[in-house]
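Lecture notes, continued. The same structure-token format from the folding unit now serves as the input rather than the output. Read the line below as a description of shape only.
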């Protein structure tokens, strides 16, 4: 049990590191946000498809199942475009800091989409995030466009997270990710 918890903590920290490093790379790579996302989603689609084929995943889905997945893939693409655009017009810390608001957006979106009761603790935590964002952004008001783009990105991240949760109840997450990356690539291309 303790070994599994340690592995989970390592995975969590690795994901946080990758997320932060993604922002830094987005700032350092001179490509515009749309081109950066196009390349990123293309290579993600290739990698996930290769993984799915290696794992002998059934890739064929009925059209009725593919349409929502393609739609979520377009939301993912728009999330990444707005995230990298926020970094390009402001800086990494503003963009990543505003991404913390995804928790608050999820507190609103999830009960609406899943038709379930509201968890008030999430709103309390969200209010704390808003206070933190206010403190951070009052010193970075010259980056107002980056703040707006990052908040839109956080909303989209929350939306695709909730929608993906519904999709994974019916389909393999690897297959979903492959189609989402392909759809996002095509949408941005």
């Amino acid at each position: 049990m303790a070994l599994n918890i340690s592995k989970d903590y390592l995975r969590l920290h690795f994901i946080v590191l990758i997320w932060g490093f993604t922002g830094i790379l987005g700032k350092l790579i001179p490509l515009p946000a749309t081109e950066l996302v196009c390349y990123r989603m293309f290579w993600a689609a290739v990698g996930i498809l290769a993984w799915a084929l290696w794992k002998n995943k059934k890739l064929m889905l009925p059209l009725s199942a593919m349409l929502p997945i393609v739609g979520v893939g377009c939301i993912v693409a728009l999330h990444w475009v707005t995230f990298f655009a926020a970094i390009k017009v402001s800086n990494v810390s503003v963009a990543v800091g505003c991404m913390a608001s995804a928790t608050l957006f999820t507190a609103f979106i999830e009960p609406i989409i899943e038709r379930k009761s509201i968890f008030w603790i999430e709103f309390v935590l969200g209010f704390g995030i808003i206070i933190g964002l206010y403190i951070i952004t009052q010193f970075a008001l010259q980056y107002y466009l980056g703040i707006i783009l990052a908040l839109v990105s956080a909303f989209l991240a929350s939306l695709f997270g909730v929608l993906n949760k519904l999709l994974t109840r019916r389909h393999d997450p690897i297959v979903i990710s492959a189609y989402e990356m392909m759809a996002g690539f095509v949408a941005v291309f």
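Point for the exam: Residues 48 and 178 are 5 Å apart (CA to CA).
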